[in-house]
Design a protein that fits this description.
Length: 462
C-alpha cells in the first residue's frame, strides 16, 4: 500500500467528516457571529452559549468544521503558549506566571469538558516529554527546564539518558524534560465532538460559507450577510485570505506522517508506555504521539511558507518533506527503517510578526479575534475562547473584569509582516539557517547553541 498524501489528514481518513451542514441561506441576524469552525470558533461558541443560553450564535465556516489546523494537528494538548517570555518582558514576570498557570489549568479543562460532554477524543494524560539529542540540545533543554520552573512549573522533571530511555528509547537521547501538563488526543475526534456539542446547545453552524469581508457588525459571504453586534475572527492560518488581513498572521506550514500500526515487538523495543507526547530541542523541531491504534504520528516543519501567504491544497505535502519526516522517524527509532508510512499531510498555523498569541475584543467596533498561536493552539484555543466569552460579557455589562480578561496576552498589538518578497525571503532564510544549525549541532560536540541559529532567532523576532 502506498502513502496517502493529503486528503486533509490521516485523522480524517480514519474518522471521516461529519454530514455536511447547510450553507448560510441568506441575510440574517445574530447576537454573536463567529467566523471559522476550528477549535477557537467552536470553543468560543460553546462557552458563550453555556454562559448565556439565550444568545443567538452563528458560526460561519468556509469548508467544514475542523478543515484547518484543528483537524490536522499533532494532538499535543499541552500547556505551551506562544509569546509567554515576551509577555514577561512587557508586563512583568508575575503576569506571565499567571498566563502560564492559566495554560496549565487549560489542559485539565479540555480533558474535563471532554469527559462531561462525552467527547471520546482518545485523550491520554501522559504529559509531554522533550528530549535532547546532542550536547547543544542538552544545554538548551536544561535552560528551558530552568525557565519553565521559574514560571511556576514546579512539577517538571529533568531526566538523564538512562531515565529517558526508561520512558521512550529514542536513539541518541542524552536527556529529557517531562511535564505532567500535557495529553495526547485525536484532533478530529475532538473537533467533531465539539461541533456536535455546540449544535446540541442550540448554536447554528453554516458550513461551505466563506466570509469574504469582516467589518463592524457585519460578516459578508457570497450567500448573504450576518449582522451581529459582535463578530469574531477565528481563522488562524487562513486569516491572510480575508480583506485587509494579508499581512496580519503569516500562514506557516507544518507537515505530518502517520506510520502503519506497529507490532507488539516494535512497541516493546521502543517503550513509550506512558504515551507522552514526544518532542525534541532542534531549532526546526519535531513532535510526535503514539496514537490510540498503535501508530506513530510525527510532524515537523517541511516547506515552511508559500509565497504570497498561500495556504493549502487540502493537506498535500511535497515528497521531500515526507522523506525528511521519515528520516527523523528512523533517526529516532532505527528499528522502524522498513515501516510503512500510511499517510502524509500538512496544514497551516498562524504566526504573528512577534510570535505572540493574542486574544482581543475591540470595544469600539465589537470586532474580536484570537489566534497567532504558532504551533501550540490545541490548548491555547480553549483559553482564548473562555477569554472571549469573558470579554463579551464584560463589554455587554453582564460582568466585570475577570482573571482571564486581565491576562497579559489580552488586547496585545503587533505590527504587520513585511510585504513580499521580503516575507518569503525572510522565512526561507530563517529555516535554512535552522536546518543548517541543526545539522552542525548533530555532528559537533559543542554544548553551545549554533551561532547562526541564535542570529536567525534574533532577526526573525521568534
Ligand atoms: C500540522 C499541524 C500540527 C500541529 N500540531 C499541534 C499540536 O500538536 N499541538 C498544538 O497545540 N498545536 C498544534 N498545531 C496548531 C493547532 O492545530 C492550531 O493552533 C489550532 O488548531 C488553531 O485552531 P483555530 O480554530 O484557531 O484555527 P483552524 O483550526 O485553522 O480553524 C480555522 C477555520 O476557519 C475557517 N476559515 C478560514 N477562513 C475563513 C473564512 N474566510 N470564512 C469562514 N471560515 C474560514 C477554516 O476553514 C478553518 O476551519 C498544529 C498545526 C498544524 C497545521
Amino acid at each position: 500500500m502506498s502513502t496517502v498524501n493529503g486528503g486533509i489528514s490521516f485523522w480524517y481518513a480514519q474518522e471521516g467528516a461529519s454530514a455536511p451542514r447547510e450553507p448560510l441561506p441568506g441575510d440574517t441576524a445574530a447576537d454573536v457571529c463567529i467566523v471559522g469552525g476550528g477549535y477557537t470558533g467552536l470553543w468560543t461558541a460553546y462557552y458563550l452559549k453555556k454562559a448565556v443560553p439565550f444568545l443567538n450564535i452563528t458560526v460561519l465556516e468556509a469548508k467544514f468544521c475542523g478543515y484547518g489546523a484543528s483537524g490536522r494537528n499533532g494532538g499535543w494538548l499541552y500547556n505551551g503558549i506562544a509569546g509567554r517570555d515576551r509577555y514577561a518582558k512587557l508586563h512583568g514576570h508575575e503576569a506571565a506566571v499567571r498566563l502560564q498557570q492559566a495554560m496549565n489549568a487549560t489542559v485539565a479543562e479540555v480533558v474535563d469538558v471532554c469527559e462531561r460532554e462525552k467527547i471520546d477524543a482518545d485523550v491520554h494524560r501522559g504529559g509531554v516529554l522533550e528530549v535532547a539529542l546532542s550536547p547543544a540540545q542538552l544545554t538548551r533543554l536544561k535552560d528551558f527546564h530552568t525557565v519553565e520552573i521559574a514560571f511556576g512549573e514546579t512539577d517538571r522533571v529533568l531526566y538523564g539518558a538512562r531515565e529517558t530511555a526508561g520512558r521512550v528509547r529514542v536513539t541518541g537521547a542524552v536527556g529529557s524534560s517531562w511535564t505532567p501538563h500535557g495529553a495526547r488526543l485525536h484532533p478530529v475526534k475532538l473537533v467533531k465532538g465539539l461541533a456536535a456539542a455546540v449544535e446540541a446547545l442550540g448554536v447554528t453552524i453554516h458550513e461551505s460559507t466563506p466570509v469574504t469581508e469582516i467589518r463592524p457588525k457585519h460578516a459578508v459571504t457570497p450567500y448573504g450577510t450576518v449582522r451581529a453586534p459582535y463578530v469574531l475572527r477565528c481563522t488562524e492560518g487562513f486569516t491572510a485570505s480575508l480583506a485587509g488581513q494579508r499581512r496580519t498572521w503569516l500562514p506557516m506550514n507544518s507537515s505530518m506522517i502517520a506510520t502503519e500500526p506497529l507490532t507488539d515487538a516494535q512497541w516493546e523495543s521502543i517503550g513509550w508506555e506512558g504515551r507522552e507526547t514526544l518532542g525534541d530541542m532542534a531549532h526546526a523541531y519535531m513532535y510526535a504521539q503514539r496514537t490510540a491504534d498503535g501508530r506513530i504520528a510525527l510532524g515537523g516543519r517541511g516547506v515552511p511558507y508559500r509565497f504570497g501567504s498561500k495556504t493549502d491544497n487540502d493537506g498535500r505535502t511535497q515528497a521531500r518533506t515526507v522523506e525528511a519526516l521519515r528520516e527523523i522517524l528512523v533517526r529516532f527509532f532505527p528499528q522502524l527503517a522498513g515501516v510503512r508510512i500510511d499517510h502524509a499531510w500538512s496544514g497551516v498555523l498562524g504566526v504573528p510578526r512577534d510570535w505572540c498569541a493574542t486574544v482581543t475584543l475591540d470595544r469600539s467596533t465589537g470586532l474580536g479575534w484570537a489566534g497567532g498561536y504558532v504551533g501550540s493552539g490545541v490548548a491555547t484555543a480553549n483559553l482564548a475562547a473562555r477569554t472571549l466569552r469573558d470579554l463579551i460579557q464584560q463589554d455587554s455589562g453582564q460582568s466585570g473584569p475577570t482573571d482571564l480578561t486581565t491576562l497579559p496576552w489580552v488586547d496585545h498589538k503587533v505590527r504587520k509582516w513585511e510585504p513580499e518578497p521580503l516575507r518569503w525571503l525572510g522565512v526561507q532564510t530563517m529555516y535554512a539557517a535552522f536546518r543548517g544549525a541543526d545539522r552542525r549541532e548533530a555532528l559537533g560536540h559543542s554544548a553551545r547553541t549554533d551561532r547562526v541559529a541564535v542570529l536567525a532567532n534574533r532577526l526573525s523576532g521568534r
